[in-house]
Amino acid sequence: MIPVVRDDGKAWVPVSGLTRTFTLLETAMNLASWIGTFLGLLALVGGQWLEGGHVGQIVQGTAALIVLGGTLGATLLAFPMEDVRRAFELLPLVYRNEAQNVGPLIAEIVQVATTVRRDGLIAVEATRAQIADPLLKRGIKYVIDGFDAAAVREILESEIERGLDDDERAARVFEGAGGYAPTIGILGAVLGLIHVMTLLNEPSRIGEGIAVAFVATVYGVALANLVLLPWGAKLKRIAEQRVVSRELVRLGLGAIQEGLNPLFIQERLWAHAGGRR
What is the reported pTM? Predict the structure, then answer.
């Protein structure tokens, strides 16, 4: 929806009941991620069923232990714990739609601009703790403290660059794990085949043993291509979207320092966001 500025200077968003429900659903969850995850798993299980097998044939605790444990171990060895922790902190964003929804952020910037224009910077200090966006909260503090526009822009640009680097390093954790998982799956299959070799004196059990051995390969390839690599790709996309949000804060604060009209600020920010309202 399009935030507008009323005659009394307050920002608001007109919504109908149905539109509001749909908007809340969009904000709460990223439907593409949920549907994609479900379809990937459904295709795997459905293919097994269509081939005449059953789910129990691809449920192997030992194979799961080898693939999950081996992939996690390789990932921890390859990446600093800080990057791994950051990756799991950002993971919920894959299934939520927060990064794509800039409407609330623009409305918040417009509200701050309106307060500054109507009551002055000191009035914002009293309500600064209520600002939801952390970068906007810090940035408006710089403005209140009397930092000039060039200094505020330089500080925010540094924070934006550092934030992008942190987000991309988190995405690389899942991409790296996606590279290790198939190889770990092959290792699991080889271990299973070694066990099968001990059954050569029982030919009736060899076929079943080989089938079980290759479950680890299925787990490794599926984990990489249905989960880890898509997570990494989505987090990279989210990192780009978060840069857009941070740039909106930088532009908004610059416009506030210039003393521009809140309605003009609103239109400028939506234009920078691609006009998606």
Answer: 0.76
